From TrEMBL, chains A, B:
The keyword Oxidoreductase does not apply. Residues 19-79 form the HTH tetR-type domain. This is TetR family transcriptional regulator. It comes from Kribbella rubisoli. Residues 42-61 bind DNA.
Length: 232, 232
DNA sequence: CTTGTTCTGATACGGTGTATCGAAAGCTAC
DNA sequence: GTAGCTTTCGATACACCGTATCAGAACAAG
């Protein structure tokens, strides 16, 4: 229907030194998002980071959504190529690769899974993932598809939740203990109603895992599940 | 630190027939989000749906974010109580329960995992999940925690991606075939570069699964993984 | 009736994405 | 070199957003 961004060429640079390009715009937007959060990415701010008015950007990008899409693709380019001798090593490297980028660029986690992406870097990532998986001897396309999709989906959710918690903590003081301190009184009052005995016990006694441990654990579950489905 | 919403009482209703309440506001907001998308939820629009100015809402809610949080909690209240004779049946019912709500209220998927929620309905959901799980004899808190967290995270990602795709399709015409039609030329051109042979083959030959099948498949993997970790 | 408290709506501020359009700047053709 | 055409730019404007401020209305208590 409408042309995808990737389809449209950059505006020509007949004019002498137009020091602007999609790449530079995206880079500026990413820097802004990295340092001030995704909400700080506005066409005005990105523009003025490049000494340009907001309207100038519209030569390179049709819409703000397109800019975000380009940012996502740029982030995909940062994911290291999946590698590993076995299929589970490959899947695991994919997962941790995506997580790494998301922890470096928190806005990436917010955008992940928000809409389908088909940029060149995203495609390249898919390509690398597929070939790496098949190099391990896993050549049933159905299985590969299912496994990849599941791992991707898991990573989206895990990373999103992890980043969300991290931001919430940071928002209310610096410390994690501080965050617990802030919500504790409320939780205690709720528990005092007696309506949530299991939750109360859980908060009390459940082992408190680090974020990476939770991530790793879920991933282990997932891989083990795929493994055992391969045996049939 | 700052008071949580759940802490603050509703404004008193001394004044005769103040036909407003947090509940009514949240309900109006949800209706708006259901029918016109999350972006359509603005204090002005919610207000005028209740014959009120935007400022009036600030008696009941401190911030728009709070309204969104209340919406999420209300959505949690719609999740049917988890049930099942075995722990995997319980986990599975949790997963499909959340997915059901997210498909009914797409904005829920967008908000899921966005920030930590601690509303009464959310707590009640957690309570029900925990007790249902323990009723099946699964009483190691560590295992329960890990399993629940993993399933939750998986559902967040899965639902988010599913809803995103569904919305993208709907955005470009009604039909799914139409969406493929829109992106097909672009993909073909990308494939023509020869840079993505594996992806090309994959698009061609991979079995095309329905959304529910993908969801169910991933869930199966996950449960099987947990199951086999229980055996050790 | 007066006083005090509680609530409301109007107004306003600073921000957003983007449509419109006149002016400038560059290239092409003569 | 100059006229004309095409491409880009920036100013301005519009509609909308979340929310701070504050005068005054509506009620309760004395």
């Amino acid at each position: 229907m409408t042309d995808l961004i990737w389809d449209r060429p950059e505006p020509s640079e007949r004019r002498a030194p137009s020091p602007l390009s999609r790449q530079r715009i995206v880079r500026a937007a990413i820097e802004l998002a990295d340092s001030a959060g995704l909400d700080a990415v506005s066409l005005r701010k990105v523009g003025s980071a490049l000494d340009a008015g907001p309207m100038r950007l519209y030569r390179y990008v049709d819409t703000k959504d397109e800019l975000l899409t380009l940012m996502v693709d740029a982030a995909y380019a940062e994911i290291p190529a999946p590698a590993g001798a076995t299929w589970d090593a490959v899947l695991s490297s994919i997962a941790t690769g995506i997580r790494g980028v998301a922890l470096r660029h928190e806005w990436f986690a917010e955008l992940l899974g928000g809409r389908p992406h088909l940029g060149p870097a995203t495609l390249a990532h898919g390509e690398a993932a597929l070939t790496a998986l098949r190099a391990t001897g896993l050549d049933d396309l159905g299985t590969v598809t299912g496994a990849l999709a599941t791992v991707n989906v898991y990573v989206i959710g895990a990373v999103r939740k992890e980043v969300a918690e991290r931001r919430a903590q940071r928002a209310s003081g610096l410390d994690q203990r501080q965050w617990q301190h802030a919500t504790a009184p409320y939780l205690l009052r709720m528990f005092a109603t007696g309506d949530y005995p299991a939750m109360e016990e859980w908060v009390h006694d459940a082992p408190h895992l680090q974020a990476d441990e939770v991530f790793e654990l879920g991933l282990t579950y997932l891989l083990e599940g795929i493994r055992s489905s391969l045996r049939n």
